[in-house]
Design the sequence.
């Protein structure tokens, strides 16, 4: 059968990337530079950043780690002693300020990974089949 369309398979996992060219979103047609690129390097499409936040479109596979709870206000400092007569600059009772703890570096995040909802995965499969059928003609 010369007209038979080969089976199409695409990945269910995608990485978010930014393109240099603008094109229309796969879902709504708005111009965007955000691209979802299949992890198998076989599929990619433009999508609005707003759709990536929609849980009915896709699921974020590697969300950022939760931020540690912020500490309450630092404890109040004891009242400073009353002014004393000036000395020769070598005050043995004055304490040096406590060093501030260094902020902990956040681990480097890899690319954001998403899994499409099954309905949009079906639409991608149909689109790929249509493209393969056009090529076969």
Sequence:
């Amino acid at each position: 059968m010369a007209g038979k369309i080969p089976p199409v398979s695409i990945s269910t996992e995608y990485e978010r990337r930014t393109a240099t060219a603008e094109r229309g979103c796969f879902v709504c047609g708005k111009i965007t530079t955000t691209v979802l690129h299949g992890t198998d390097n076989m599929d990619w499409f433009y999508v609005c950043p707003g759709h990536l936040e929609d849980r009915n479109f896709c699921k974020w596979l590697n969300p950022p780690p939760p931020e540690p709870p912020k500490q309450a206000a630092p404890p109040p400092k004891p009242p400073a002693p009353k002014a004393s007569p000036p000395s020769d600059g070598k005050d043995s009772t004055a304490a040096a300020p406590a060093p501030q703890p260094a902020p902990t570096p956040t681990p480097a995040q890899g690319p954001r990974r998403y899994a499409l909802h099954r309905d949009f995965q079906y639409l991608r499969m149909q689109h790929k089949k249509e493209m393969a059928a056009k090529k076969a003609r």
Notes: The chain has a mean pLDDT of 78. The helical segments are 49-52, 118-136.
